[in-house]
Structure formats: C-alpha cells, structure tokens
C-alpha cells in the first residue's frame, strides 16, 4: 500500500514540479524581454536628442537621420521583430557616430559629447539586458527541448524563443 502511495505521489508531483519549472522559465524570459524593452526605450528616448544635435551640423546627412527615426518608430513590435529592428537601429546609429567623427565642430560640442557618452552607456545596458534575455531563453529552450519537460511544454504550448544574435556585418572587424 505504501509503495502505491509513493508511486502515485511521484506520478502526480513529478509532472507538477516540471510544470512549475517551465512556468518559472517562461516568466523569466518575459522578465528578460521587459528588461530589454526598458533599455531599448532608453535608447529610443535618447535618439531624438542625438539626432536634433546632429541635424544642426549635418544637414546633408538627412536620409541617415530619417532612416534612424523611421526604425525607432517601428520598434514597438513583437520580440522577433524587435530583434531585427534593434539590429537595424544599432547599425544606423553606428553609421551616425562614424559620420559625427567627420564633423570637428560637432565632435567637440559638449552637448554632443555628453549625448554620445550617454548613448554608449545605454548601449552597454542594452548588451547586458540581451545577455540576461539570452540566458533566460537558453534555460527555457533547454526545458522545452529536453524530455520529460518537453512533453509537458508541448501540452502547454510553450515554445522555444529566439536569441538575440549578432548580425553578420557586426562580426567583421571595424575599419576605422
């Protein structure tokens, strides 16, 4: 009789514990997505200030500034779309920062220097949030893909999430 009770407890408690772990991992990914969103919002809020300062000095670079503004506006979408847009914005902002180097007055302007430093800090925070997100996604994806939790994840329709990955053009060395 005791063996039957222990076996029944294992049959009931085991899947429940797996269920709890899956939900915790899923919520950790949501928390990580929120952290990325907070950092991206900081970047999106900072971009107009940088662009306003840069516009004064770089009137003929208008298309680059317009591209950044358009990408920033599109960025409030689903996480997979955010990953693509985030990479596009990062690339355009890197172009802008490289162009700033060509404008000695802009490069030495105290407001622009402060904005660029703040932008660099925000980028560091975004990188940290991406690492946190990727760690949470890794834990969830492992649970979703490894048996026995994969069976319960399938029943709960919990799916693997995409990682933030470096784009191919970012893997190449920078030619300054």
Unreliable residue stretches: none
Helix content: over 70%
Structural class: mainly alpha
The rounded distance between the terminal residues' Cα atoms is 76 Å
- Rg from C-alpha positions? 23 Å
Structural notes for this entry:
This protein is an all-alpha fold and 176 residues long. It contains 7 helices and no strands. It has helices at residues 2-57, 62-74, 79-100, 104-108, 110-145, 149-156, 168-171. It starts with a helix and ends in a 5-residue tail after the last helix.
Characteristics of this structure?
single chain, 176 residues, 82% helix
List the helices and strands and how they pair.
Elements: H1 2-57, H2 62-74, H3 79-100, H4 104-108, H5 110-145, H6 149-156, H7 168-171
Helix pairs in contact: 1-2, 1-5, 2-3
């Amino acid at each position: 009789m005791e063996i039957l009770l222990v076996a029944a407890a294992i049959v009931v408690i085991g899947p429940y514990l797996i269920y709890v772990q899956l939900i915790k991992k899923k919520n950790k990914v949501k928390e990580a997505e929120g952290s990325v969103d907070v950092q991206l919002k900081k970047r999106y809020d900072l971009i107009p200030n940088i662009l306003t300062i840069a516009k004064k000095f770089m009137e003929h670079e208008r298309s680059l500034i317009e591209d950044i503004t358009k990408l920033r506006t599109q960025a409030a979408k689903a996480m997979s779309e955010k990953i693509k847009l985030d990479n596009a914005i990062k690339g355009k902002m890197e172009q802008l920062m490289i162009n700033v180097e060509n404008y000695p007055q802009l490069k030495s302007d105290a407001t622009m220097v402060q904005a660029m430093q703040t932008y660099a800090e925000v980028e560091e925070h975004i990188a940290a949030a991406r690492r946190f997100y990727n760690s949470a996604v890794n834990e969830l994806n492992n649970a979703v893909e490894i048996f026995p939790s994969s069976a319960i994840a399938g029943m709960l329709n919990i799916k693997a999430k995409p990682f933030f990955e470096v784009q191919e053009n970012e893997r190449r060395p920078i030619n300054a």
